[in-house]
Design brief:
Radius of gyration: 16 Å
Number of helices: 2
Structural class: mainly beta
Order of helices and strands: EHEEEEEEHEEEEE
Largest sheet: 8 strands, antiparallel, barrel
Strand order of the largest sheet: 1-2-5-6-8-10-11-12
Strand content: over 45%
Number of strands: 12
Oligomer: single chain
């Protein structure tokens, strides 16, 4: 079972972050929120014969809305495969190699959402597509908004 976790703080690229929580906070026409590395992390864990957990040190992410309707949100995450960090140089080298991420030939791991689905006042499902090594698969992240534009997203696959 794989688990990709993305803990994020959303910062409006406008002059101020929205003051209200939940759906009202996120859905604004033509709003783009940067997700900063200072307050956020892209983490993963994979359980096969041995569980491997880690994070990516270099990534970019944004959440964009084209209208006040929160369902128009688009989440984009781009992680540099070569920035994988498990805390073990040996594991990192193996993950960067041809048998796993093949970071030299496929440097980006991406997620692009297709929509945002409200599941509660401050919770959302974000279906989209993960692409690793040129292979794309559908995945749904679960997003919980708390406080002033604080969020955590987890995949269920």
């Amino acid at each position: 079972m794989q688990n990709l976790s993305h803990s994020a703080s959303f910062h409006s690229l406008e002059k101020y972050a929205p003051p209200n929580a939940g759906t009202k906070q996120l859905g604004r026409a033509n709003a783009r929120f940067a997700i900063t590395q200072e307050d956020s992390a892209v983490k993963f864990s994979v359980k096969a014969s041995v569980e491997i957990a880690g994070k990516f040190d270099k990534w970019d992410a944004s959440l964009t809305f084209t209208s006040p309707d929160v369902t128009t949100g688009v989440l984009d995450i781009k992680a540099q495969a070569a920035s994988v960090d498990t805390g073990s140089g040996m594991k990192d080298g193996k993950l960067k190699g041809k048998d796993f991420f093949d970071a030299q030939h496929d440097p980006l791991i991406t997620f692009h959402s297709t929509k945002v689905v409200p599941t509660g006042p401050n919770t959302f499902d974000i279906p989209g597509t993960f692409t690793i090594r040129g292979v794309s698969k559908s995945e749904t992240l679960s997003l919980t908004v708390s406080g002033r534009a604080q969020a955590q997203a987890r995949s269920r696959g």
